[in-house]
Amino acid sequence: MFSMLRHAKKMLMDILFPRNCHLCLRLLDKEAAAFDGFLCSDCVKKMAKTQVLRQSFSAFKIPVCDAVYACYVYDGPVKELIHKYKYGNRPYLVKSIVALMADVLKEAQDAFLKETDCLVPVPLHPVRFREREFNQSELLADRLSQTLQKPVVRALNRTKNTPSQVSLSKRNRLDNMKGAFSSKTPSAVEGKNVLLIDDVVTTAATALEASRVLKDAGARCVRVLAFAKG
Ligand SMILES: [Zn+2]
Asked: How far is the CA of 129 from the centre of ligand 1 (A)?
């Protein structure tokens, strides 16, 4: 009886408020056309998965950080989805992002999920947080925590409001990030295998600086997991 009512309510809501794909605006009127309640399956098909999860660590081995993983290539509908999520004030799109990540993660045979003790989101400076009203990496970590069955530890503070990285060279990006983070709860990461969560990695300057601080705080292993690689 309740499921019938729920079904009827859903049908009514769909008629009153038809859902459209957030990317191409096509009507999500048929189950087959929808990836979920926010994206159509055609847009999702155009998203390029990276091969990073299937590569060995050594390809991405960098001294302060043990590995960098990204699930999709930051281009086309992936780029658009991130922009709508971050700058278009649509925090609920995190559901789609994590569902897309789960698609890639389940294909990865690596034991790295088993070897992860906790997820640490890259923090946002309070000034940026006030502007955006949410931290995209924190929402991502909270949602991934349910999928991966790992706890979230908010182990870092953002101590410097770094200017936008977009116009900077790789070297300047690393300099720009120096001193951007401090450790909030060193005891929570000491001796732990940490999975650092960010939405996009490009030069990985942000992730590397955050990893360095986590390592200084005593983390045994720090690996980065991002939705997309720029
Ligand atoms: Zn679409």
From this structure: 29
Q: Quote the number of domains for the chain.
A: 2
Q: What is the 27 CA–ligand 1 centroid distance (Å)?
A: 8
Distance 28 CA to ligand 1 centre (A): 9
CA–CA dist 43, 211 (Å, integer): 33
**pLDDT (tens digit per residue) in 2-29:** 677 777 776 676 666 678 999 999 998 8
25 CB-near residues (< 8 Å, 6+ apart): none
For ligand 1, the distance from its centroid to the CA atom of residue 180, given in whole angstroms, is 37
Do 30 and 116 share a structural domain? no
**147-157 pLDDT tens trace:** 888 999 999 99
% of the chain at pLDDT higher than 70: 86
Centroid of ligand 1 to alpha carbon of 20 (angstroms): 8
* 118-121/67-73 β-pairing: unpaired
How many whole angstroms from 95 Cα to the centroid of ligand 1?
Answer: 16
Residue 35 lies in domain:
1-45
Note whether 48 and 76 are within 8 A (CB). yes
